[in-house]
Design brief:
The complex is a heterodimer of chains A (359) and B (68). Chain A has 359 residues and is mainly alpha-helical. Helix content of chain A is 75%, strand content 0%. Chain A has a single domain, classed as Growth Hormone, Chain: A (Up-down Bundle), CATH 1.20.1250. The chains are: A mainly alpha (359), B mainly alpha (68). Chains A and B meet through helix 3, helix 4, helix 10 and helix 15 of A and helix 1 of B.
Chain lengths: 359, 68
């Protein structure tokens, strides 16, 4: 229990919570405007696909840009771009693709800003970035719910602008860390030192891609009502945060092995049972911050760029869903089982065996 | 299917095809970028590691000389 308490009260943890809110507001804004466009049948399929590509994929070049030019505050840039895109959606009669691209780039900047800040201030811990990442799940479902209400887009634009003070405050934690004149990510030593950096990057990105695919492929026949959808996203968010906190308390390798192996039976048995399925979803979501920590361990000087690999992997994993889905539950279960074994093997190979838990 | 419906269908097809083309182009460009940057970063890290190792070797040798 002491380990969990230490993980939750770690130094600079507030930066993680500040970016939790910014991430939440980001996803509310993106999914509000995105879901409003679904009404147009032309956009039904293409719009989310373009969004996924343009919000996820450019995060590695944007991350690299922010790594090299540390004065760029990704959070602020992203918030301003998203607010501008929201105003364009509401008031400018232009092709919806123009504000969509701006919205995606804004989303990418905010994510990179969050990753840069939480990774650099965490002193080699995962809880900060895990808490930041978890905010997104709550935002996705809130944005979708708000889009079906009669809330004006202007309210959402004002809402995203409330994240600016949070981004400025989070930035002060980053500046304080940078004064210490050491590489803030030096303590990320979770990757197997016997493996080449390139192999770690390829395998970790593969795990993210597989996880992305599985996230859409999880059998959830039980998900029929709005409340059940909300429960699914909330559980995902809790799982993502718990992954980082557990990894700090018990070790990255143990958490990785637990999350991949323990989630499978719950996911397979939970097709028609919400409670069982949600336990599986929560445990399964815990791998999120672990792959990020593994990537940062081999790209210590460019954490923003390392974060970009996770989102690139996520896109590569989710892209096939737009073209192809298993209709048979049994085939889906077989694929999920095989992919879990693949993930487990990859994580066992790239994870460091003699890791030290940060006190 | 009426002429109008066929026209709408062909428009949608072109629309979607164009979207996929641009998405694929962006994805491929970013993957190439990421691969090049990663190679450069790994090379830089290796050379920095080698430099620090050789510097610590030099320190050890000079410390041994002092002891002698």
């Amino acid at each position: 229990m002491n380990g969990l308490k230490n993980a939750l009260t770690a130094k600079n943890m507030m930066a993680g919570w500040l970016y939790f809110y910014i991430h939440f507001a980001t996803e509310v804004t993106c999914f509000f405007f995105l879901s409003r466009q679904y009404g147009d049948s032309v956009m039904l399929w293409l719009f989310p696909f373009v969004y996924d590509a343009l919000a996820f994929v450019p995060q590695s070049p944007i991350g690299y840009l922010c790594d090299k030019f540390k004065k760029i505050n990704g959070g602020i840039v992203g918030i301003v771009l998203m607010a501008f895109a929201g105003l364009m959606f509401e008031y400018l009669p232009v092709s919806p693709y123009i504000p969509l691209v701006i919205l995606c780039i804004g989303n990418a900047f905010t994510h990179v800003g969050g990753a840069e800040t939480t990774l650099r201030v965490s002193d080699g811990r995962l809880a900060h970035s895990a808490v930041f990442v978890s905010g997104g799940s709550f935002g996705v479902v809130t944005g979708r719910l708000l889009s079906s209400s009669d809330v004006s887009g202007l309210i959402i634009v004002l809402f995203i602008l409330t994240a600016i003070p949070f981004a400025l405050l989070a930035d002060t934690y980053l500046r304080d860390t940078e004064k210490q004149n050491i590489n803030p990510c030096e303590k990320f030593n979770y990757a197997n030192p016997k493996l080449s950096a390139a192999a770690v990057i390829i395998l970790a990105t593969l795990v993210v891609a597989v996880r992305g695919y599985m996230g859409y492929g999880i059998p959830t026949a039980w998900k029929k009502t709005l409340l059940q959808t909300v429960c699914l996203y909330v559980t995902m968010g809790i799982g993502k945060a718990a992954g980082g906190i557990f990894a700090d308390a018990f070790g990255v390798r143990k958490t990785a092995v637990f999350s991949v192996s323990a989630a499978l039976p719950f996911l397979l048995a939970g097709n028609n049972h919400m409670g069982i399925s949600l336990v599986g979803v929560m445990i399964f979501s815990m791998t999120m911050s672990i792959t990020l920590a593994l990537l940062v361990s081999v790209l210590k000087k460019t954490p923003g760029f390392a974060f970009g690999f996770t989102t690139l992997g996520l896109f590569l994993g989710t892209a096939p869903i737009f073209f192809f889905r298993f209709t048979s539950v049994r085939a889906n279960c077989i694929v999920i089982s095989a992919l879990s074994v693949l993930c487990l093997a990859a994580l066992m190979i790239i994870g460091r065996k003699d890791e030290k838990i940060n006190e | 299917m009426s002429d109008f419906e066929m026209l709408v269908d062909s428009f949608l097809f072109e629309h979607v095809k164009g979207g996929i083309f641009w998405v694929a182009a962006v994805v491929i460009a970013v993957i190439i970028f990421a691969a090049v940057i990663t190679a450069c970063e790994i090379k830089k890290q290796k050379s920095e590691k080698n430099a620090s190792e050789s510097a610590s070797d030099t320190c050890e040798v000079s410390a041994a000389d002092d002891t002698d």
